[in-house]
Amino acid sequence: MVYLTRRASFSAAHVLWSNALSEEENFAIYEKCANPRGHGHNYILEVTVRGTPDTKTGMLLNLTELKRIINERVINAVDHKHLNYDVPWLQGCIPTAEVLAMKFWQQLAPAFPPGMLYEVKLIETENNWASYRGKEEK
Amino acid sequence: MVYLTRRASFSAAHVLWSNALSEEENFAIYEKCANPRGHGHNYILEVTVRGTPDTKTGMLLNLTELKRIINERVINAVDHKHLNYDVPWLQGCIPTAEVLAMKFWQQLAPAFPPGMLYEVKLIETENNWASYRGKEEK
Amino acid sequence: MVYLTRRASFSAAHVLWSNALSEEENFAIYEKCANPRGHGHNYILEVTVRGTPDTKTGMLLNLTELKRIINERVINAVDHKHLNYDVPWLQGCIPTAEVLAMKFWQQLAPAFPPGMLYEVKLIETENNWASYRGKEEK
Amino acid sequence: MVYLTRRASFSAAHVLWSNALSEEENFAIYEKCANPRGHGHNYILEVTVRGTPDTKTGMLLNLTELKRIINERVINAVDHKHLNYDVPWLQGCIPTAEVLAMKFWQQLAPAFPPGMLYEVKLIETENNWASYRGKEEK
Amino acid sequence: MVYLTRRASFSAAHVLWSNALSEEENFAIYEKCANPRGHGHNYILEVTVRGTPDTKTGMLLNLTELKRIINERVINAVDHKHLNYDVPWLQGCIPTAEVLAMKFWQQLAPAFPPGMLYEVKLIETENNWASYRGKEEK
Amino acid sequence: MVYLTRRASFSAAHVLWSNALSEEENFAIYEKCANPRGHGHNYILEVTVRGTPDTKTGMLLNLTELKRIINERVINAVDHKHLNYDVPWLQGCIPTAEVLAMKFWQQLAPAFPPGMLYEVKLIETENNWASYRGKEEK
Prior knowledge:
6 copies of one chain form a homohexamer.
Chain A: E1 2-14, H1 23-30, E2 39-51, H2 63-78, E3 81-82, H3 97-108, E4 117-125, E5 128-132
Parallel strand pairs in A: 1-3
Antiparallel strand pairs in A: 1-2, 2-4, 4-5
């Protein structure tokens, strides 16, 4: 069992705000992240797959293919976008790092054979990140 | 002559768009950076001062004081903000890294004795940054 | 199950020396780390919690709260300190990265609901680090 | 159970090419990595061991000893070398990151008590890396 | 006067060897870098231009254009190549970081108006790099 | 004129305290850095030389030689040491980053032909650093 990780990055805006909460509650919970016009990040996305390398090619998965999947299913949709408005499959979400990691997993998982996708890690700033490994705990 | 640098970071949204240009021209020039809702970055700001360290304290400038100046004059105004809308002294600017470096210089320079502020460097992504050293070339 | 990590840093001095060993043994085991006056590091502490994000807020744990816990229980006690002398709850320890990771876990664990604290990682230099996940193996 | 990691680096050349495949297939699979003269990387190797720190020394394993093992068993053999030609124990391999991680594990494992070696991680570029944890899954 | 930098990376092999020197002299001077089959690096190239931003666009030079120039004139020629054999305009050179920085400058300079290209910096490893600012000292 | 930089690192303890000042003044100026037992850092030292590469070797200065000079004249004296007590040529200094950069320059300069040493940069933490270019301004 080998783990292979590909790193990608994208720049996006977001605002943390819940319509189910009052303005006062929003600012109490999300503080400066609730600034209505939004702020943004250089997000880093690390996608890890696992399995046994092909004995013929020495590859677990061709990195070109892994890069293509990540771009087509996530990066192209979120890069240089406002995550609260521009991404159909994020509508209705509060785009915290935790939620984004889960949503990105849902976008990516169908592209792989069962069990191959191991972890989706989303680095929001150099000081915080979230990762998701799917519903079954390792 | 010693150079002393303090690094700070902030997260902000921006959009590159000029009202003096047509929509077509805006997208031709700024490409994905012209996305109307904006996108964002984890900006890194590096401020360099220069001079002769005080023989009594060994300090060119107290780092606590340098940090305070950077926070009060720049970071507090731009952190977790949308640079096109939320910052009075950026109104009317196109917030490219080049323009931001110059504007931040203008905010910072009055806080220092003449000649002490040496360079303002603004890192927009891990792949591009701009710096400004004032009107007189070194 | 989502994992959320917060990174903090602190600068501290330490010396690796055991009073249960002779001077000769100390230098044989700890080499240059046994220099009596001590040396120091810019330590990086990464604290990972895990759980299910709140469906209302999208947060596993508010990062402001996580930061507060880390500061109050660890950073404030060790930042700009000498780890062998200045920290009551490290008295009698040999402050290797392994031991510090375990001690920091003991400081942090009572602040979280059972099972929420997942990992404490302590990076001593860019070339070595230690992590601890509590007594029950994952 | 504490995890302790030591990072090392080496610079090497390699080419991804399988003699079991046609030239056309090689270029289809490995693309620019199949350039016959080879290309190269600044590889980063992170070796993680796990166990209980010695109560007398506070150490899981002396970092000097861990460094010596990594250098003698891996770094000295691969640093400033062409991985396809210069390393006897890599002969016949296609030196992908996945394969290298597994081969380095095989070199390193016999130097440790059973169960102590936990993970070998090989970072090929800032955008991709592979890790191996041996035959028994954690 | 604003300085704008774009970072690019490439992976290449090279060997330091001079045909004007004996085998003994080559190994005495270049040590492990003289290994005949070559070794390699993940090189990072930082290209800095300077000038006054266009008041209409806020740009000193469009980053898309700067990226295109760097790719067409340098990266495409050296990425995943062996620098001693695969690059026509490096033939006869000893590809040290110093020489590469100068050669890259020569490739890049004709693409810019006089005086715009300010510095070419080539990072060979995390521990050494070279930069060149053309024949006229700043 | 090419610039060549070599990076080195060392871990050391220090305390910012001036015997010419009262205890009250020391804490007012140096704040937490005045903690009597000291604290510490993983310092990074970047030494830049400049000149014209030798046409025969392609080298401005052999990196092995540059590394040797840096180790013999600075690193060996300060690594794993307490800068206030253990380094004869730092006695009587207040070891701020500014002062250390100047002192390291004085240690290094005599090892090079006149004009070759260009800059000594000392990175104290990821958020602050100082550099010194000698008495004659560039």
